[in-house]
Structure formats: structure tokens, C-alpha cells
Amino acid sequence: xxxxxxxxxxxxxxxxxxxxxxxxxxxxxxxxxxxxxxxxxxxxxxxxxxxxxxxxxxxxxxxxxxxxxxxxxxxxxxxxxxxxxxxxxxxxxxxxxxxxxxxxxxxxxxxxxxxxxxxxxxxxxxxxxxxxxxxxxxxxxxxxxxxxxxxxxxxxxxxxxxxxxxxxxxxxxxxxxxxxxxxxxxxxxxxxxxxxxxxxxxxxxxxxxxxxxxxxxxxxxxxxxxxxxxxxxxxxxxxxxxxxxxxxxxxxxxxxxxxxxxxxxxxxxxxxxxxxxxxxxxxxxxxxxxxxxxxxxxxxxxxxxxxxxxxxxxxxxxxxxxxxxxxxxxxxxxxxxxxxxxxxxxxxxxxxxxxxxxxxxxxxxxxxxxxxxxxxxxxxxxxxxxxxxxxxxxxxxxxxxxxxxxxxxxxxxxxxxxxxxxxxxxxxxxxxxxxxxxxxxxxxxxxxxxxxxxxxxxxxxxxxxxxxxxxxxxxxxxxxxxxxxxxxxxxxxxxxxxxxxxxxxxxxxxxxxxxxxxxxxxxxxxxxxxxxxxxxxxxxxxxxxxxxxxxxxxxxxxxxxxxxxxxxxxxxxxxxxxxxxxxxxxxxxxxxxxxxxxxxxxxxxxxxxxxxxxxxxxxxxxxxxxxxxxxxxxxxxxxxxxxxxxxxxxxxxxxxxxxxxxxxxxxxxxxxxxxxxxxxxxxxx
Length: 685
Prior knowledge:
54% helix
């Protein structure tokens, strides 16, 4: 039940079907998406003052003025002014703004050092007693701050520094909560305080990432030169703007701070592969870069980035946020989450729907988590990630179907043994399938990382729900509270309990996150289907190749069998023919050598050669030595051992006896040679 005069945040933007459904019931369909807020035009800019976009911004809400049609008051000031003197409160008084109903302070970077200084300054402006004690025990206690910091190990990249996803309660004293509620209304808000750290998807470009990495390498080189961190010189670059100079100074000052390091924007792979020192090769292979409309414009292509949203609510009416912005000079609602939120508040009427810090937090969370999933007609085609991914998945699926059809057509025409070489290549070659498999694995990998981001966002819905409910009704109700409450207050209290999310901000956030999760799940399901189809195609081709090889082996076996039969017939005949072809005295008239002398040469030599080849075949160390002249020392030692073991074998004895007989016969033959003109006399040999 909405408060009279306070519209639901998207009531004016429902479609006819959505409006009809919500008229009948207040429940939202399980995975339907509330109609998105109108997107800012592509040329929309915001004039919010300041020197450059990396300066802190302050937004003040006055409910009465906003109801009259006025806009929230916005101011942008230098960092020293906000963190030091005169401070946020005094600065906004120069904008004719004091004691607002809600104040939102935003830092456009994730600096732990400046965040602590800012919250301390805000607590001081409010008038908290014991600011240092409050910060140490409540806001920045170890379990809410340093324990959630993922420290960078030695050898890790700078992307290994981040705050773990979490949502937690901050317990402020009743006195400090009352100080924060300048216009406290009984039962309207209990002034809950909380902190939230979540990642969200955003966009970047290759040239900006390269520019930042160049500065990181320069700083790292100086640090390795054993210079003190305080003596590092900021790596300014010629042509840098005031905005880039500011960020360069901040990197130089805080990048190597172990307690309060600066957190940088991370690519998809840097977010997921935390301990991989260098992800530059993987970053260049992002799907939106390789397959988007700007694929040929290498060096300036868009990239998927994971940013961090840090959000604190103090006493329900002071909101502090920190998240990075893209390195663009103009205040473009289509380029940055903060500018988009501000455009929705000032130019789209959403300020009228904000009545507490929690509702403003829901708008910020929604815009941060939904920014990447924006499909507005005014959005550039290169930033429509869903269209790019579905195009790539569809192209891979189409190629897989074509390859499968070619294989199926060939398999049904004739036996593979009768195919030409080109046809056999089409039937067995899996080169193209492996290329497609590589592409689809890239898609699966990136979808997995995006799903991880959305999962971490959804994991904080229940804690956020509990804290939002606590802000509306408090942790508990005492008998004294109920005793002093009027009957009207009690009835109003019970009615609000029945529908505590009056303007349905939490319901909207929940439905958006579920819808984003389902979008990625649907794409993942389709991608896995194509992946399985590719694996099936490869498996079928490998099975065809195995069958072909089996047929070829069988034919070869038949040929070898036939050759063996022929050899078994021809070898004895060849042996007999060889024996009778010897010019032996016993076999033919006029022979010049005795048969036993010829056999004394032939048999030992044949045995030695056979033994050598048998040994080479069955002893691995000898085979390695014979085939690799530069063999290892171990193989040589093994060879020596084998040879030593063979020295006493029968084969070596036969070889020695054969050699001895050969020398004796050669001696007698040579002695008889002069008398017979070089030939031995048959009668004397």
C-alpha cells in the first residue's frame, strides 16, 4: 500500500499489460522485468560544475521542494574541500542547501584511504560524539573492512586487490541515529545503517586500458628501483587532462599502500582469474572485441569491465557511494552509472519516489547492475553485448550444422575405402571443428564469469532485505514503544507491516537481478548445446576414422598373409638356388672354393647380423642409442650393461668361433695364392 502522494517508482512507465496485471494484484510475475526507466538520449549531458569528473559530488533531497517540481540540489567540489575544510555540509550551504532530508555523497573511484576520510568527515559534520571510536568499532571494524580486503600476494597483478562481496549491519547508538534524523517521524523510519560491497558489469575501451597499464608499468619500474613509495614521481603523459593527472597522482600515492590500497577497474578475466599476473592476451580475446561491430578497429575496441560498488547508509538518510567511472571527460549518462542515476533523479522524475536512503540505494544498485544489460534503441551497437553473443553463438551453431551435414552426406553415399582423398579429408578431418570448439569455449568462459558477477549480486539480496525491513520497523518493539503510541500510529504500523516495501523498490531490484541471471542462464544453455553438438561431431568423425583404419588394417593384413604364403614357398627355393649358385668344387666342375668354406663365411655372418637386429629391436636402451647419436648418459650406461650381459651368451660365442674359422681359412688361402695366380689350389685347400 503506497503512501498517499508518493508514486511507485515505475508507475508512470508501465505498459498496458503490466499496468493491468498490477491493478489486479500487487505481486510481480516470478521472472518478469518491470518496464525499464526511459534511457537518456545519446547526446545527453549533465552540467554539475567542478573542474573534472573525478571530483566528489553531493546530491541533496528536499521532499517538499521535490513535490513542488524542483530538482535535487547537486554540487561537485574538489577532493581536499570535501575531505577537509570546509567539508560537505558547508560546501552545500554555498549551494543554498542545508539540513536535507537525504544527502548522497559520491566518490567516482574506489579509494579505501579517501573513503575512510570522507565517512569520518560526514560523521563530524553530523556532530557524532567520539567519531574515531565509531569508525573503529562500527563502520570500519576489522570484520567490516580489512578482513574483507583481498590482499595482493607477491607476483599477483594489481587486479588482485578488491573487497569481497558482502552486506552488513552498522550499529550506531540511538543518540547518533537521532542526530542524523533532522526530521524524524515516529514509525516512518528506524534509521538503520548498513554497508554493501558488490561487483557489477560495465564497459571500457582498449586504448584507455592500455593507457592505464602504461602508467602502472612505469610505477612498477620505479618501485623495483628500490625507491621509497613516497619518492615516486607520478608518470604523467603529454596531453593528459586534469582528470587523468588527478588519477595518476592517486595511483602513485595509494597503489602500493598495503593497508588502504587503491582498487582499479578490472577486466572480466582479471575479476575471475585473480592470481594470474598478466591477463593481457586473454583481455584481447573478449567476444565483444573480436566479434563486435568494431572488431577491425583494434586498439580502440570496447571491453567488458567489472567495477565495484561500495555503498554505506548511515541513519537511513545519508548515503555514501564509491565506484569507478570511465575515463571520459563529459558527464554522459550513457557512459557512466553515476551520471545515469543523476539523470533519472533530475530529468526523469525518480526523485519523487525516493523517501529514504534505502530507496535511493535501490535505485543506485539497480542502475549499476542493469547498466550492462541496457538494450535501449539509442545504445551503440558495439555495446549491445547480448546481440553480439547471440550472433557468435548462432554463427558457430550454423557452421557446426554445415559440417555435420557434409559428414552425414558422405557417410551415406559409399564406403570410405572408395572415397577420394578430398572426400576422406572431409569425413575424417576435425580441424574446423576444433577451431569452432575454441570459439565456443571462449563464449562459455565469459558467460561463466558474467554469471559469477550476477550470482554475487544476488547473494546479497537476503541481507539487504533484512536491513531494509529493519529500517522500516526496527529490530524489535518494546512494550514502552507500544504504550506511548496512539491508536492511529498502531493501525498505521500494522498496515505498513503488511506491505513494508511501499514503493516496491526492493521488489524491483530483486526482479531485475533475477531477470539478468536468467538471460545469462539462457545464453549459457544455448552455448552448451552447441558445445555438445561440436563434441558429438568430433566424436563421430573420430569413430569413422577408426572404422576406416580398421578396414585398412584388415586389407593390409590380408595382403601380408598372402605375401607370407608366397614367401614361405619362395624362400626355400631361393635358398636352394643360392646354394647351388655357389662356385663350389662339389657342385660344378671347375669350381674354385669348397662348399664348407663358403658356408663357414655365410652362416656366422648371417647369425651375427640377425643377433644385432634382434638386440636392437628388443632392448630399448640400445635402440635409443642407435637412433639418437646424442643420447643421454643414462642410455649409454644401460647400453654398456646390456653389452656386458651379452658377453657370455651363446650368440657371442658363435660369432667368435665364426671369426676364428674365417681367419684360419683366409690364412691358408693367402699362402696358396702365389702358386695359383691369386686363387687357391683346390687340392691343397
